[in-house]
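Workshop exercise sheet. Pairs work together: one partner reads the sequence aloud, the other fills in the structure field after running the prediction. Swap roles for the next sheet.
Pair: D.N. / O.F.
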Amino acid sequence: WSAYLLNAKLYNKYTDIFAYMQGLFVLNTFVFNNLTQFEETLRTPLVSILGNTEIFSSYFDELSKSEILEMNDSISRAGQRLKRSIEKFLKYADLTIQKINGVDRDEEFSLFDTCQHNCEYAITNCYDCLKRIDDISIEIENALLKIPQNDFEVILIELISNACKFSKKGTPIVVKGEIVDKEYIVTVNDKGRGIDKRDIQRIDSFIQFDRNYYQQDGNGIGLALVKLICEKFDVRFSIESVVDEFTTVKLKFKI
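Structure field:
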């Protein structure tokens, strides 16, 4: 009986190790397949940061106050982009390993209050959103959702940021949140170029749609990250889109 218990413990231990190694293998494959794209995502803001600091060092006494402020703003924006890219990648990696290993980490968190102020404040941390702030309309009904504030904000920022990138300046981006039949429904709608049905089906693949043609910033991980967060917190996620007309992302939270 003691030998049986020992073997059972060893089996469980090796099973855990195998699951962990399997997660690392999948993650390494994911990184390898997208290495060039991810490298470019990190390199682009670094070029701005290092280039501007080099100019600071070499020509500081010759720069005007307005030039210094402009360069400082450029460094700050590049730093924020770099920080956001790294945070997204780490979050995606963590959630991917959890999903592969069937691990659901217990987290203690307060219910998130979807008040108008909280949602409007969240997008102030998104540079893409700030560039289109006059185009963004937010109409949010108050509700308490079973999701950490940080995860909800990641979802909101990623969806609005994508809407900004894939639609022209001056076109509306409408964000709504309302209670319907014991569910809280959040929709983000833009009148941009839309997403092809085949691309919608490939969201899990860490892709960036038609990057060579559209040259948008980012590493294509946004929607895949949103989908993983939604799966973790049992949020139903769907996309409706018509190419060259509109895209509407809909989230349904249980309340």
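Discussion prompt: The longest strand covers residues 246-254. What would you look at next?
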